Amino acid sequence: FSDVENDLAEVLLTESDIHEKIAELARAIEADYDGEKLLVVGVLRGAVMVMADLARELKLPGLEMDWMAVSSYGAGTQSSGVVRILKDLDSDLEGRKVLIVEDIIDSGLTLSWLRANLESRGAASVEICALLRKPDAAKVEVDVRYVGFDIPNKFVVGYGLDFAEKYRNLRGVAVLAPHVYS
Ligand code: PRP
Ligand code: MN
Ligand code: MG
């Protein structure tokens, strides 16, 4: 990854920071859904890493996983607020307890739209787990039950997060060096 390192200004979270936090989040989720049948919904593509690690960490018998792909960014780096479903769930949400799993809450537009959308399908409950949140970038407040880290309003990549589809496979989360996008 030596070429990649040139593109990174600063490592924010190491692989072990992340895994420690995911274990913590999993314990909180297990306590809240003890004895319940939970459906976790990962938001493609950014949430792939969090979903894979969180789902394996969760000791909840009967856990189900489903996926949605939505797009709010188009080609730009700014969220437009217009969310399109690119791939819908395969599961029926009627009466289900649903936990949306996201990599990051930036403006909050994607998740506030998504929660309302899933609630309208008759889910018994819809909660959110996000590994990262940028409080200074919020355009709408999203009520997030489980948050990993609040981070500064900088462009971050890694652990699922991309810039122009790259860097998703990094094990940690890092701030992208300005020379990459300017
Ligand atoms: C990113 C990120 C969140 C969303 C957060 O996804 O993974 O899903 O933006 O932004 P918001 O809070 O401002 O709405 P993106 O649309 O880039 O798609 P991706 O997951 O495929 O990278
Ligand atoms: Mn995403
Ligand atoms: Mg993206």
From TrEMBL:
Top enzyme class: transferase
Catalysed reaction, written as an equation: GMP + diphosphate = guanine + 5-phospho-alpha-D-ribose 1-diphosphate; IMP + diphosphate = hypoxanthine + 5-phospho-alpha-D-ribose 1-diphosphate
Location, primary (coarse class): cytoplasm
InterPro entries: HGPRT, Hxn_phspho_trans, PRTase-like, PRTase_dom
Domain of life per record: Bacteria
Enzyme Commission code(s) on record: 2.4.2.8
Sequence ranges assigned to domain Phosphoribosyltransferase in this UniProt record: 18-163
Keyword Magnesium: yes
Keywords: Cytoplasm, Glycosyltransferase, Magnesium, Metal-binding, Nucleotide-binding, Purine salvage, Transferase
Molecular function via GO: glycosyltransferase activity
Pathway: Purine metabolism; GMP biosynthesis via salvage pathway; GMP from guanine: step 1/1; Purine metabolism; IMP biosynthesis via salvage pathway; IMP from hypoxanthine: step 1/1
Known cofactor(s): Mg(2+)
One matching Pfam family: Pribosyltran
Signal peptide feature range: none
Entry similarity comment: Belongs to the purine/pyrimidine phosphoribosyltransferase family.
Protein name as annotated: Hypoxanthine phosphoribosyltransferase
Lineage of producing organism: Bacteria, Bacillati, Actinomycetota, Actinomycetes, Micrococcales
